[in-house]
């Protein structure tokens, strides 16, 4: 027996205990370091993979359903997923251009809002929705959801607005700017 290993009850050692509970303490990222033939089994049995993945278990999909068995097959499927993401982004941009932009213009006219303020408000909600969904996942369950969403939205809006003002200076109506900024900050 190794002098560094302690003996527990029943003649078992710490190494035996760790080996019997390795699926409970194994990190899900360790699946990527295993040979391809073992990745499906570990993706389905590791407790961490079940805990951190809510909607789509990519490891199970790639290594069990698709049955990826080599590096080049994995790269090919990642390239296909990338193409799928680009197609989804193109469809989303088409829908925004066709439906959301005219609806936003109508809403801003009905509420007597400045079109730019309506756009910035829509941008703030659009920027904070992924953060809220990500913070509702158990990976970041301990994080304060609202403050992260507001902080990210304000940082993106102020950085993009500051960049526009820096690159192309222009004159603005002071009263409208103060009103719009207060509405944005308090909204």
TrEMBL record:
GO cellular component, one term: membrane
Pfam families hit by this protein: Na_Ca_ex (PF01699)
Keyword annotations of the record: Antiport, Calcium, Calcium transport, Ion transport, Membrane, Transmembrane, Transmembrane helix, Transport
All copies of domain Sodium/calcium exchanger membrane region, residue ranges: 81-184
Broad class of where this protein is predominantly found: membrane
GO molecular function: calcium:sodium antiporter activity
Any single GO BP term: intracellular calcium ion homeostasis
Transmembrane segments: 75-96, 143-167
Subcellular location(s) of the protein: Membrane
Keyword flag Lipoprotein: no
Membrane topology: Multi-pass membrane protein
Source taxon at top rank: Eukaryota
Name of the protein described by the UniProt record: Sodium/calcium exchanger membrane region domain-containing protein
Taxonomic source organism: Drosophila ananassae
């Amino acid at each position: 027996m190794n002098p560094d290993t302690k003996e527990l009850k029943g003649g078992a050692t710490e190494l035996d205990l760790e080996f019997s509970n390795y699926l409970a303490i194994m990190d899900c990222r360790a699946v990527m370091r295993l040979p391809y033939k073992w990745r499906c089994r570990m993706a389905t049995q590791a407790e961490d993979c079940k805990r951190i993945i809510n909607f789509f278990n990519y490891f199970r999909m790639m290594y069990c359903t698709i049955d990826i068995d080599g590096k080049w097959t994995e790269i090919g499927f990642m390239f296909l997923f990338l193409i799928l993401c680009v197609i989804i982004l193109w469809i989303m941009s088409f829908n925004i251009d066709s439906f959301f932009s005219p609806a936003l213009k109508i809403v801003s006219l009905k509420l007597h809002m400045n079109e730019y303020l309506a756009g910035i408000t829509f941008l703030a909600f659009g920027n904070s929705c992924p953060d809220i969904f990500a913070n509702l996942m158990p990976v970041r369950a301990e994080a304060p959801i609202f403050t992260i969403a507001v902080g990210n939205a304000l940082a993106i809006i102020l950085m993009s607005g500051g960049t526009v003002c820096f690159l192309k200076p222009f004159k603005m109506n002071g009263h409208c700017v103060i009103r719009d900024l207060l509405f944005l900050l308090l909204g």
